[in-house]
Amino acid sequence: MPGLPVWGLSPHRQSRALLGALVGDSVKDNQTVENIERIFKAAKQGDFAVFISPHYYYPTDYNWKFAGTLEQMMLGVKEFTRTGPLTLDGFVGSGADWLDRYKPFIEDGKTIVVSPHKVYGPQSNDLVLQLRKRNLSKVILLGMLANLCVEAHLRDLIEQGFEVLVVKDATAAPHHPELGDGYKAALINFGYVANAVLSTDDVVAAM
């Protein structure tokens, strides 16, 4: 798959405990954290372009007048909160910070960290601009959460004319007793929407 940029969607610290028990089983079953790291390693060894689409909230975002179901949960626990758009005060070690195991890959001076997305999709950030400015049209997509941020990014990138491969076990999703199994729902939609859906083993072997 030469020429495919690799994009780790949301490698924050709180991804490990995001929504607690709702996501924990999916992360363990898929070995999500480990598989994202494997993709990072293969991408860097293969000189792939790596993009991060972070999810941050700034203090002014807490003045929003309405929010969807999961937005309310994330805003309620102040998930991915930054002290401001132009400061890193309090960032290191916070829920918005990267997982320590990912920092060597993200902070190598080559990885492109785009402006933050605010809900689920990249419509509110500059991911598409950064890809187009590099003449990149193929994306390997992974990260949290499968049925929300990953699927929203997938749908928008497809609509924007990109070819998108989703790494199905380098992601995870909540399993809610009333709302249902987000991971199962995501896999169904990945199959319908993406150009390809592969495992981490297959992607790493091809890279």
CATH class: Alpha Beta
Could you spell the SSE succession in H and E letters?
EHHEHHEHEHEEEHEH
Average predicted local confidence, pLDDT? 90
The CATH architecture comes to 3-Layer(aba) Sandwich
CATH superfamily: Isochorismatase-like
How many E-type strands? 8
Largest sheet, in brief, is:
6 strands, parallel
* Overall 3D form: globular
- Strand order of the biggest β-sheet: 3-2-1-4-5-8
Strand content: 15-25%
Radius of gyration: 16 Å
In CATH, the topology is named Rossmann fold
Note poorly predicted spans: 1-10, 14-18
Number of domains: 1
**In whole angstroms, how far apart are the ends?**
6 Å
Structural class by SSE content = alpha/beta
Helical segment count: 8
The percent of residues in helical segments reads 25-40%
Describe the fold and architecture.
This protein has 207 residues and is α/β, with parallel strands linked by helices. It is built from 8 helices and 8 strands; from the N terminus they run E-H-H-E-H-H-E-H-E-H-E-E-E-H-E-H. The chain has a 6-stranded parallel beta sheet, with helices on both faces. The protein has a single domain, classed as Rossmann fold, CATH 3.40.50. Helix content is 36%, strand content 15%. Helix 6 packs parallel to helix 7. The longest helix has 14 residues. This is Isochorismatase. It comes from Stenomitos frigidus ULC18. One of its GO terms (molecular function) is hydrolase activity.
